[in-house]
Design brief:
By secondary structure, the protein is of the alpha/beta class. It folds into two domains: 2-97, Phosphohistidine domain (Glucose Oxidase, domain 1, 3-Layer(bba) Sandwich), CATH 3.50.30; 98-423, Phosphoenolpyruvate-binding domains (TIM Barrel, Alpha-Beta Barrel). 42% of the residues lie in helices and 12% in strands. It has helices spanning 10-15, 34-41, 53-56, 78-99, 123-131, 155-169, 204-210, 212-225, 241-260, 278-282, 284-287, 298-306, 324-340, 354-362, 375-382, 387-398, 403-415, 419-423, and strands at 2-5, 23-26, 46-47, 63-66, 71-74, 115-120, 137-141, 174-177, 231-235, 271-275, 294-296, 344-346, 367-371. Strands 12-11-10-9-8-7-6-13 form an eight-stranded parallel sheet. A three-stranded parallel sheet has the order 1-2-3, covered by helices on one side. A two-stranded antiparallel sheet has the order 4-5. The two termini are 18 Å apart.
Length: 442
């Protein structure tokens, strides 16, 4: 079956792994909304932001869900069905071919290594990440533990889950993000206040510091899990230096409490932060004295810098990570990382776009984290370009005055060489529809 809904929660999407759902269509959402991110991670064909889908589609209708082109075809005739099945088969064969190279090193054509890691939300995804060639977990979203339940997970439950993830990818590193509840991710176990704009309200690290006992429970579980692998802790939505300092105090307290119990843990646990609020990107040189690593969260960085709701279908075409303002913020963060000798990575959806990924390498990033399914194609894309070409494209892009001009620059440099990766099949006609830039078609 194919599910058609106004929207789906992350838990609804995750549940499709167990249900006989071949794909889904939602009326709201964009490429960077959480439901779409989950769909890509679980490799479920989906089209989000398809307005009036519930009015146009009825139970029992035959539909084609084309996630590559962002199309939903209702009542297809025989020719359309045959074409869709043929393209699906070619895409699967193409994807399997990319996956077969998962054990090859992730390097550019000039031999420069670029680490590719996975964004993960469910424990089962950790195994999937390794299978796709991930060099570790660059982002583990812990908030899924808190969703769709009336009681919060206790320390032991969290510890066992984090330990399982670490052991699944050992000896590769795992970055656990502390819970990012709020915005488009709600948890019934938290009593969140009603707000006009939740994305600008009590969420993520703000919520954690308002409920230190809940936060300490999570931190103790993470500290205990550090005994079983290479673990780092990352804080979301940081906007002030005070927040980082308060989190560090709580982490030290959590380590002391675990020590007093006589429980094992790593002596040093790197504490880093997401750079997804413009204030953090602008003040990156100051935050570099407080954090041990940065990870750019471009989905929210775009939302806050451009003042566009990341779930807005109407404004999706304007919410581009290739906007010159976003590129300049990224460049500023990378420079701070170089100046203060701390690692800088990216874990936003931008990293899983082959053209954008080449631009990120040109801006100086050498660690990209994305949904596991995207790793093979980004690895293949990297093998076809040199760092010098990426840097040349980045210099041009930074001088552009619009996202459209940046797109023209990266397309001119790389589109021809990445043609098959952009279309999903070496045999497909050139139809490159970016769901982040164009509304889905019914």
């Amino acid at each position: 079956m194919i599910i058609v809904a106004r929207d789906l929660s992350p838990a609804d999407t995750a549940g499709m792994v167990r249900e006989p759902a071949m794909g889904f269509i939602t009326e709201i959402g964009t490429r960077t909304s959480h439901t779409a991110i989950m769909a890509r991670a679980l490799e479920i064909p989906a089209v989000v932001g398809a307005a009036d889908a519930l009015l146009s589609i009825r139970t029992g209708d035959m539909v084609i869900v084309d996630g590559l082109r962002g199309e939903v075809i209702i009542h297809p005739d025989g020719a359309r069905l045959d074409d869709a099945r043929a393209r699906s088969a070619r895409h699967l064969a193409f994807a399997r071919g990319l996956l077969s190279a998962r054990d090859q090193p992730s390097v550019t054509a000039c031999g420069t290594p670029v680490a590719l890691k996975a964004n993960v939300e469910l424990p089962a995804e950790a195994i999937l990440a390794v299978d796709h060639g991930a060099e570790g977990i660059g982002l583990y979203r812990t908030e899924f533990l808190y969703i769709d339940r009336t009681t919060q997970p206790d320390e032991q439950e969290q510890y066992e889950l984090y330990r399982a993830v670490l052991e699944a990818v050992a000896p590769k590193p795992v970055t656990l993000r502390t819970f990012d509840i709020g915005g488009d991710k709600f948890a019934s176990s938290f009593q969140l206040p009603a707000e006009m704009n939740p994305a600008l309200g009590l969420r993520a690290v703000r919520l954690a510091l308002k409920q230190p006992d809940v936060f300490l429970t999570q931190l103790r579980a993470m500290v205990r899990a550090s005994a079983h692998g290479d673990l780092r802790i990352m804080v979301p939505m940081v906007s002030t230096v005070h927040e980082m300092r308060e989190v560090r105090k709580l982490l030290e307290r959590a380590m002391n409490e675990v020590d007093r119990r006589g429980q094992a843990h790593a002596r040093e646990i790197p504490l880093g932060m997401m750079v997804e609020v413009p204030a953090a990107a602008v003040m990156a040189d100051v935050f570099a004295r407080e954090a041990q690593f940065f990870s750019l969260g471009t989905n929210d960085l775009v939302q806050y810098a451009l003042a566009i709701d990341r779930a807005s279908r109407t404004l999706a075409s304007q919410a581009s990570p290739l906007d010159p303002s976003i590129l300049r913020l990224i460049a500023n963060v990378v420079k701070a990382g170089v100046d203060y000798d701390i690692p800088v990575s990216i874990c936003g959806a931008m990293a899983s776009d082959p053209l954008a990924a080449m631009l990120l390498v040109g801006l100086g990033l050498r660690e990209l984290s994305m949904e596991a399914a995207a790793i093979p194609e980004i690895k293949e894309a990297l093998r076809r370009v040199t760092v010098a070409e990426c840097e040349e494209a980045a210099v041009e892009a930074l001088a552009c005055d619009s996202a459209e001009n940046v797109e023209e620059v990266v397309a001119r440099y790389f589109a021809a060489r990445l043609y098959d990766l952009l279309t999903g099949s070496s045999e497909d006609p050139l139809v490159i529809t970016r769901t982040s830039s164009h509304p889905p078609r019914l």
